[in-house]
Specification:
This protein is mostly helical. It is built from 2 helices and no strands. The mean pLDDT is 80.
Length: 80
């Protein structure tokens, strides 16, 4: 299989990458860069392509990739 082939990904992963790619393009990122970033994001969230074998069938997390706002950060200083 050629390097860069998306044959080993599920249809859900392919749809997810397409959706992420569209989001990047809307923000003004080039088509090539958007595609690379989208697949990197899918790999990070789903840990690569199709999984098979014992103990590999874990569900993917639906949690957000980033924390919102200041959650977990430094406390906001009060102004006087």
């Amino acid at each position: 299989m050629a390097r860069g082939s998306k044959k080993k990904y599920t249809s859900k992963q392919k749809r997810k990458a397409e959706h992420i790619e569209e989001g990047y393009e809307k923000r003004g990122v080039s088509k090539k860069t958007a595609k690379a970033r989208a697949w990197a994001t899918v790999n990070k969230s789903d840990k690569g392509g199709k999984k098979s074998g014992s103990g590999r069938g874990k569900k993917s997390s639906k949690a957000s990739s980033r924390k919102g706002g200041r959650k977990g950060g430094r406390a906001k200083k009060k102004r006087r």
